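Let us practice reading a record.
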Amino acid sequence: MSNHDKSLYTRAGVSDVDDFYRTKFVSDEVLDARYFKALDRFDIRFARTMWIYDNVRAGSSVLDLGCGAGMLALLKRKGVTLTGVDLSPECSLAARRNGYDFTMTTKLSHLPFADETFDYVVSLDVIGHIGFEEKDAVFSEVSRVLRPDGVTMHGIECTDHAARRNYEEMTAEALQKFVEIDGHVGLEEEQEHGQRFLRFFKHVAWEPRYALCLSSDEFLKQADKYGLEFEEDFLDYLRGLSFNERRAFDMAMGYVFGKISDFNLTLPKSGLYVFLKAADVPLGPFYNEHRDREALYSSHESLKELTCLDRNSAVTFDDGWYEPNLLPPIARWMSREARIRFQANDLSEISLDLTTHIPDVRERPLLLEFILNDELLTTFQLWRNGWLRMKLFVPELLFARADGDFELEIRADRTWQPRPAQNETRDDRELSIAVCNIEVKTAYQSGGSNLSNRIVA
């Protein structure tokens, strides 16, 4: 860390930089590519990920600088060899858990790789966290480990000198508040990032982004914490949105964001964010250079023998399911009702683990129904918290009529919201049960299907 960086952190009241970033960015978020739902390609949260995804070749080697919990794990769907480095051991471990082939803890200015190792070196939301005097050392390392025909791509946080004070103009109190938000100690304007990369690469291109499209939470953060001006009634509207309404808003923002890329539109300078590409060879298209999204969609293959549905690309979980959480184990929370669609031959048994966190379930047992292809398999009342193993046996007549296509529907008679208050810890999802380890068996494996459904504690 440079003296300049130390003075910035010291002025901001950050005595332990490693601990500061660990508490900011260590996450148990489930980003494993096997859990990715195709519809989420439109979510503004994955807009930066999709830009990288559409610009890397299938089967290439990728280094993710400052990998965090593994926001680029989706690249595994394209068969890439994915390596991540981070300052935090906890972040490196999280990325490995989310499917990275190799992760390690290291300074970005001292990468432990041989020259010309990677086809791509990429980062998202990292360059703005690198101190000014360290940036050149980092970019020199990027150039060193990149293959001669390789490309480096970055999603970079920016500033606007005309609208915001620079670091040296901030008081210690103002700097502390600013750095505390996101840990930014190295923000520059869009063109300054471009000029810096030109010191190390012959060809550099950049495009301002997020001038139009932000998530609902990001709009509020930019207004409340960074002081950006938006219409007050619009902000009030965003604050009043439910979880599902915020999800719809973010999907719409992400859809527009993607179309701006598809139409190759140039946005005005935003002072918020920039996408940047650089290489020593002439650059290809800025967007969608290697676009192939086939691997994002369900493969519609029949499941063979004993198969776990949780992480199978041939299985579709509808919008009644929330994204997976590490409880542990990794499980999907369900709203009031949800469906799973899959194909299987000679299906005879479905087994799964389930639990609920509804606090009053002993006083008011939760009624659950399990329906397969519109035929009720079983119904029961869940009266305690804790994991249960459930086995559902499929009647022979049902799978004979199904012709290999199945839809499992689960219904609950109520939901609850863990933390509905409007604050930074809000979790206003409508939850009933969490489900994992969903397995299907053939008639041969289960030894017939003339057994009754049962639950195992």
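A brief commentary: Residues 352 and 438 are 4 Å apart (CA to CA).
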